[in-house]
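Table S2 (continued). Query chain:
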Amino acid sequence: MGGSCFPKDVQALSVSSKEAEYDFKILNAVMQVNVLQKEFFSNKISQYYNDNLKGKKFAMWGLAFKPNTDDIREAPALEIIARLVESGASVTAFDPEAMPNVKKETKLSINFAPDQYSALQDADALIICTEWNEFRTPDFEKIASQLKTKVIFDGRNLYDTEHMKNKGFYYESIGRGKVMANYHHMKRVLITGAGFLGSHLCDRFIKEGHEVIGMDNLITGSLNNIEHLFPLKEFSFYHHDVSKFIHVPGHLDYILHFASPASPIDYLKIPIQTLKVGSLGTHNCLGLALNKKARILVASTSEVYGDPLVHPQNEDYWGNVNPVGPRGVYDEAKRFQEAITMAYHTYHGVETRIVRIFNTYGPRMRLNDGRALPAFIGQALRGEDLTVFGDGSQTRSFCYVADLVDGIYKLLLSEYSQPVNIGNPDEISLLDFAKEIIQLTGSKQKIIFKPLPADDPKQRQPDITRAKNLLKWSPSVSRTEGLKITYDYFKSLPEAELRKEHLAFIKNN
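Corresponding output:
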């Protein structure tokens, strides 16, 4: 599908056929297929990432249109790079001979590596565009250790699909379908909580080639978040309250405990359930991890810092929490959760991980959960004035859900058992954030002020030094981009759903 001779010769034949007034349909179809083949391969990459390539990093092996040449005329790699960069991704490439020509003859924004393995460093996936001999028998263990995730898009069908499956890679080539990791490399994962975060985690682990069991009693979660997963053989769902004894047949490799009411409206309305899921639910999940010899990651929160006296908040800060205030049922449930998790780690030797999550947003959030972002967008969509509590000087730091999930995934696979902050340190006042939402939505409404709720934290900003150093993680989706995606999601909800959420919000307040 590359090189200059083939398209040039075919186009010449096409011109000759037109001059002879002959409709050369087969030849025209060949020309069209050659163009579409390049688009088809680019689309494979984009579809894997749900058409959101912003911030993704790709390694590319091969720039020449064929091996043993430095010729880059009509090379598929160049078109693929252009598409990726236009979508907000970055590319680091290696080619044994063609890199000088790419530097000299193109204006592509591209990084060049000194060798094929250096190109892989910290990349989300490897893309193969030229079948050089040195690419045919690589060190797959080295590839796996360098990439963020074991994902390869092969435009030259260099590798045996069964071999790639056994090596534990997600592997897409041309005309041979997708290859997921072999069962021996596949992990069996229990994720408690089918809400906003839990559903995105289910998506990520299935995409990584694992078997996922979702569990929720749906007191605040919704099956709408995971209904797209039900047809998949890799997914199953248990309707169960984790504060009661948990039974899951078969082995488990990982447990991610995300079941919890997580918004002010929820834990003010159901305070006892909030305490129980954080205490009894965590105890049950830890007991299951001990029994199954599984690694467990528990979802803690920035709320353990309370109304912080340290700014930004780092993991060594112990917090400033009112245990008997209206937010205490959530804050103290999470603090207990961390304590019992560390007790199981030190006393029973359970492999545990603790993530402290800061404000997160994205598709599948509930409009009526009481948090600033969905509240502001919901009010804008309904044509209402935006409500800011206090004077709006209190700050928040918003992390897009895809970034958060990536950090959680890396933390789970790390060897670190102490708490780790995962969040976006880009801090903004709620008054400025309300103005940002008005600008985003084109709303003509004004901002109104109401009294500040009890114990509302004055500032929130994560110190993510630990995540950067240990996990090589930092957020990549800007608030501007993430808000646009989230706003489009809320706009797509049916009008009746928008009004229903509004009535629920009024009732709960």
